[in-house]
Write a structure and sequence with these properties.
By secondary structure, the protein is of the alpha/beta class. 62% of the residues lie in helices and 14% in strands.
């Protein structure tokens, strides 16, 4: 059985850990509020812009754009958005699992299976890829906390260059979509090429009867302008989703850690009291036994 001093040291250590996890929870909660406001403000514009660009491409059959060019997928660019720091529960684990599935498929590729290259946004995904020997084409690290439109534009420019210059036939994003503080959903979506909306059923009939618009200066110029703006805005929404999801996951993880620390402190305190009581009882028995021996 552990001594009283050892138990006291463990209680002190767990209390210190609980103070740290409680402070990290409060910091994550403050950052989450700001990140949540940003993503909720960015989503309507990003979603509406995506709807506009896809609707324009669907109605304009004669329109074309290099970023809408669908070609046989021989080279796929997998973009894994993870965090730069840990202590955020399963936030990174879920992304790494999808990334491993894609990369293991590449290792077992047969003829006709596309070659997969990795772009890592965040240190955690980069570290796992290096440990497992995955080929990293490019990495973007130390960006969390500075999620802004400039970063989204630089990411978008890089993916546009890779796609238009033929080094990638498809760009696939893997990231956590922010649902709520307690829920983040792993999302896998194709960034490039951009696909038109596909209407079904009643929507298809409505589409057939839909009146086309007059575009100024021209449909091609409007489409060209909207495509780049859509890509930058979409990447901005993705990194804001990832940022809010990270803070939500960390707040939840630190709350669970603080609760577990409190439970452990309670158990250790009970063990300390029992050990102390047993020691006192033993000492009393020794004193009584010694007194009886002297009296006898």
């Amino acid at each position: 059985m552990a001594s009283i001093q050892q138990i006291k040291r463990r209680i002190t250590s767990v209390k210190s850990t609980e103070q740290i996890t409680r402070a990290m929870k409060m910091v994550a909660a403050a950052k989450l509020r700001r990140a949540q406001e940003r993503i909720l403000a960015a989503r309507p514009f990003a979603d509406k812009l995506a709807e506009m660009i896809q609707s324009l491409a669907r109605r304009g059959e004669r329109l074309s754009h290099p970023l809408m060019e669908a070609r046989p997928v021989e080279r796929r660019l997998l973009v894994a958005v993870t965090s730069d720091k840990g202590l955020c529960g399963s936030y990174n684990t879920n992304i790494v699992r999808v990334m491993a599935e894609e990369m293991s498929g590449r290792a077992e590729a047969q003829d006709g299976t596309p070659e997969v290259s990795l772009v890592s946004i965040g240190k955690k995904g980069r570290d796992v890829a290096l440990h497992r020997g995955y080929p990293i084409q490019k990495e973007f690290i130390d960006n969390f906390g500075r999620m802004n439109y400039d970063l989204a534009k630089s990411l978008g420019d890089y993916f546009i260059a890779e796609f238009t210059e033929g080094r990638a036939d498809e760009v696939v994003l893997v990231y956590n979509r922010f649902i709520s503080t307690l829920s983040q959903r792993v999302t896998v979506e194709t960034l490039l090429p951009i696909s038109p909306l596909k209407a079904k059923g009643v929507e298809a009939e409505a589409e057939a009867a839909e009146t086309d618009f007059i575009y100024e200066p021209s449909p091609e110029a409007v489409l060209k302008k909207l495509v780049d703006r859509h890509l930058y805005t979409h990447m901005h929404r993705v990194i804001l989703d990832a940022d809010a999801s990270e803070h939500g996951a960390r707040m939840t993880a630190m709350e669970n850690a603080s609760r577990n620390a409190k439970d452990m402190i309670g158990s250790l305190t009970l063990l300390y009291n029992r050990t102390r009581q047993a020691k006192i009882t033993t000492e009393l028995i020794e004193v009584v036994s010694g007194a009886e021996a002297l009296a006898g």
